[in-house]
Amino acid sequence: MRSLVRLFTFAAVFFFFCNATRGLDLTGLDSVPIQEGGRKKPFLVFADEALLSLSGKSRFLKDGVKISSTMAIASLWLTPLGWEDQPLILIANKKFKDQMGFDPAKKLFSYRELAGSEKLRTALQDVSAIRSKNPKATLDVLQREASTVGMRLAVFEGLVSTRSLTLLPTGAAAWSPLKPDDSALVKLREGFRTNNQADFDAGLAELRTEQAREESRFQADAGKISLEVFYQRLHPFRYAWILYLAAGIGMLVVPGKPGYAWGWSLGLSGFLLQIAGFTLRTIISGRAPVTNMYESVVWVAFGTIFFALIFEAIYRSRYFLLGAVPIAVTSLILADTQPVILDRSIHPLVPVLADNFWLTTHVLTITLSYAAFALALGVGHIILGKSILGGKSSPALHNYLYRTLQIGVLLLAIGTILGGVWANYSWGRFWDWDPKETWCRQVGRIWHGRRRRVGLPIRDHGMVWRELHSRRGTPQLRIRHWWASRSRCFYPV
Amino acid sequence: MTAVERKRLVEARKQSSTFWRVVHWLGSLQLALVLLSTIAIACAVATIAESEFSTKIAQVYIYKAPWFLVWLAVLCINLFAVTMTRWPWEKKHAGFIVTHYGIITLLIGAIIGIQTGFEGNVTLHKDKGPVRKITVNRSIIQVESPNDSALYVMPFDASTSRPSEKRPRVFEVPQTNLQILADGFSDNLIKEEKLVPSESGSPGVMLRFTSPRMGQTLEMPMVLDAKEPQERDFFGLARVVFQSELPPPKQAGGVETQMVFGKFAPVVSGEFKASGIRVVLGADGKKISIAAPDAATVTYLRSEVMKSPIPFGESLVTVDEYWPDFEMVGGRPTTKSDQPNNPAALVRIQNAKASEGDLKPALFAVPSKDGIRYQFQRGGGTYAEGNAKVGDTISTGWADWQVEILSFYPKAAMRSTMQPGPPLPKGEIGVPGFRAKLISPENNGSETRWVASGDITSLTDGKNVVRIGYGLELRPTPFAMRLLNFEVPRYEGTETPSNFIATIEFKEDGTGFTKTGTARMNHPASFPGTLFANFTGINYKFSQAEWNPRDLGETTLQVLYDPGWLLKWVGSLAICIGITVMFYFKPKPKVL
Q1: Where are the domains of chain A?
Q2: Which residues contact B569 (CB under 8 A, 6 or more apart)?
Q3: pTM, full prediction
Q4: Which of A21, A130, B424, B453 has a Cα-to-Cα distance from B134 of 20 to 30 A?
């Protein structure tokens, strides 16, 4: 007991010091609305996204101290002096670093290093020359990296010049940054520079007053902003995978009923957390949460657990949950830890994807079918593992696998048809022998043909095929396909 | 009926009747396997062909090829025969039969769609009149016969048939004994314009623009036209004008800059007569007053009007910069502190009437004795002028672009020819075309010409002239289309479009029936759009396809006409129902 008290005291002192070194409390700034990327978002989200696009990380190590994204971005904005020497800007590609003559062992570079590099400047000019000749030109890996680094430099410049901090409603669609002599900005700067909480808070209050000056239709929806702050801090999908992992381990380690009950309750809590996360995200973005790769990965994890729980409720077998957990945990960990590949920020959609009931239902159904197949993958591997270890797998297990495949095939068929409905509704036709359409049907055929030989290890091939072929096809169709959400196309078709 | 009884029945009818033997052969699994595996292989090949070459190649050689159609027809027969082999039908066959008839219906719908329907594009402009033709994705040549001057249309797609010297294509010119021989293909034809001296004609000049930094050059030949100035667009960034008289040197559109101080007299700059507008900055830098020559004065809070133009009489007044504690450091204005010790502001006064066109940089050139006289303008004002002879290079002042006078003829003509350019990198689309010559019975070696898509080219054998056009087919519609309005709303604070909204007026030719439709992204417009039209597919659907960011009055719509759609739908629905019945409404399947 005494050791516990000591531990708590230590923790309290530790946290106190952490706060002391941080100095300012910036939670007030977190919920200040800012217009960026076609929507209004809290400063916290803006800072997370800006730091991520600059450095590829959600925290920044400044002079040996880890600082939050809000702290880093606020500092770039309010006290830009000195930041040009901080190693902040990410260059990931080794070959590119070699080519530019940068230290290949380093990941982060300072603005001064990059802006001063003659080679980088030439590379950026080359890329912009290619783009000006043909805006749709395909760039090679090194050119793409150059363009990404150029974009990062621009983000940095936008922050230190305060140009990209569009905080003020103007009475038109576009907000504007604070003017250099704006008294709120002056106070914020002063407060931030001198670590004076009262000055800083006074500046924040003044900024809020200035924001409230315009008509309400030009302002941000306060409820949505605070909801987004809550969502951004909650990390529902991170806690979901922790819970799922705990559920899986518990079921493996603790035998019998207690282990099963443990798995059920933790799995269910993780599932509820995911529902909460999706609800929040849907309210914030105003659309179904399957419009980019990040959302799809999280959604497939969700679907896998969803079907596993349904089957568990029917069969009480534990194999569904055990099969689902590795898949859900892997996908959620990927989504959680690879923010550069799986971009979690909420962007406005290209027009062809926005405002469409059929598209939403089509994508939701298809991705749910992926989830069912993923569950089949998990259950299938359990069977495979059992037979490799010499144990004879029970007929019941094969029946379970069959059930999951049944759900998958049904959803895939419905989803493909719904895709047809969407296509027909949106541009007037749904079947014309093009590869995407053809191979969607081929996959359906293969699944229907194979459905009885459930024991065969063909489980996930159908999915792989589908992925492959849905990305090919004519440029037009490729853009129309929902993967287009990742390609950021300028032209609608 | 038990399985054994059924087997016996089938054997018996195969023995006794040729009809049933044929039905069972046509409905055999072996035939189905052959058909399906061929189709699967063909689809695989087509998929690869499509990504390696083009959609058109895949369509011409596979999806829309006659043999594929025949194959599908045989598949339909096979599917039908298969249902007949199950005769007499029982309840358990329901799912099976519905599925197979669904596939047949779908395929028939697809064939009807391919044969009678079409897909095309139409570009409409807000300020232009109604359009009655749709560009269909089918290449044709149009040949004008020299005998009756009529136009003859023949389907020909050079990019899929790729004529070569080994495999030439020959077209008869109707009503004559002439032939056109196509024996070469290029997907990147480039128009070469050359300036040549001529007997008669007007002065002509050949300019070459180069930008070392962008590694680009642009050659621009121009011949003077007595009536109107020859104007060329320079990448949308500037204008190049060749005319007979230089415009009088202009002052920079009445742009005037004033450096005003809170505590000192202003510094006014500009090489023109002053606007007379006085701008006064308050001693604390907080207020700014604008006074007209006739003493009308308006005062603003300076912080509120920074960088936004204030209309004032015929002028626009903009406060561009502000320094609270002004100081010149190294020739550049800076501020010593945040305190308004020496407030200063940079004010720009512009003539509000200066139009957009005048503000674009422009190069004016007029012919002189052995070269040109030129004048550069920007913002409506002249910034450079002079004389240049052949071989001279002038700096344009547009980024690092320079212009060289390559040649000059007092009497010149323009000669343009098409020539194949270098092979294009993958993904880029150039102007395709083929090489052709005219052959007559007596003459076999006439001059060859490249016929470019979208152009009309004259072929001659020395005696006859045949005009040939090559390009996409234009299909007339039984109604006229007019763009009433086109809107591109944007996501807040960005230039990213959030939608494309075209309002189109349709007017039927015979009846004069008029209808207005709106095509939004994902929500096409249709004409006639009645219940009957929608149902039968005798209906034109217009969906948003492309837009022109430089001209927001223009939009391109995809037009679709598909009388087979209902069959495709009914077929698909039947397939789904059939599969559901077959697989999900059965006693529990036996477990392996």
Answers
A1: 28-219, 227-487
A2: A424, B109
A3: 0.69
A4: B424
